[in-house]
Write a sequence for this structure.
């Protein structure tokens, strides 16, 4: 990777803000600052390095946690005073444990409040995509003791067996009208379905697109078995 440092305009403190974005999903992960040295180390190593304004030192993202960011592309804005870094994110980006530093943190939920008091519920598609990203990361970068890696190592038939088992357990929980167990078992079912998607190289957005196309086309008979009948929106 080669860059022209002269295109970057560092501020009076020798820093430039760097927006980090997931290369696969386009999700914004975090904002940090780079100085010339950390930018050069990012280019040289292929992994993100930043400058800590509080500790006055360089730091590599994921150096202690293992949640490193492999750089896929570097952009500068029209004024040259901000960077966009597209990365492959291993694990989560935020030190709080969320995939993105912006996950579930909105200022505009209540326009009468100057800042967030409570985190609003996270968007379901975002949660599923974050989980899928972790599953794909385990597939590409195996971790010893990981259950996800156990499934991939055992192969297709094992994954299919687990999907079937979790579906049956969800049915049993429903028949027993055990609502807590329904949620628990369906959580397991959805996780194993995401593992199956990852096994086939299918991304959740492809599934979402299929569901959206059915809704737009009024083609819900695939769900209900009755042509033209749609469940309530």
């Amino acid at each position: 990777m080669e860059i022209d440092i002269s295109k970057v305009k560092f501020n009076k403190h020798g820093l430039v803000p760097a927006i980090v974005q997931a290369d696969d999903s386009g999700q914004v992960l975090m904002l940090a600052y780079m100085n010339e040295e950390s930018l050069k180390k990012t280019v040289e190593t292929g992994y993100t390095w930043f400058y800590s304004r509080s500790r006055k030192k360089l730091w590599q993202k994921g150096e202690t946690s293992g949640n490193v960011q492999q750089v896929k592309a570097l952009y500068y804005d029209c004024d040259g005073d901000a960077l966009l870094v597209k990365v492959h994110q291993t694990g989560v980006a935020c030190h709080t444990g969320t995939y993105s530093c912006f996950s579930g943190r909105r200022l505009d939920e209540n326009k009468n409040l100057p800042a967030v008091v409570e985190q609003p519920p996270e968007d379901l598609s975002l949660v599923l995509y974050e989980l899928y990203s972790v599953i794909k990361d385990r597939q590409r970068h195996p971790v010893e003791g990981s259950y996800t890696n156990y499934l991939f190592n055992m192969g297709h038939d094992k994954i299919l067996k687990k999907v079937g088992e979790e579906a049956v357990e969800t049915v049993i929980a429903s028949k027993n009208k055990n609502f807590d167990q329904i949620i628990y078992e369906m959580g397991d079912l959805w996780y194993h379905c995401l593992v199956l998607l990852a096994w086939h190289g299918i991304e959740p957005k492809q599934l979402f697109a299929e569901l959206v196309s059915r809704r737009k086309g009024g083609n819900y008979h695939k769900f209900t078995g009755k042509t033209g009948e749609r469940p309530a929106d």
Observations:
- Strands lie at 16-22, 28-34, 49-52, 57-60, 69-76, 83-89.
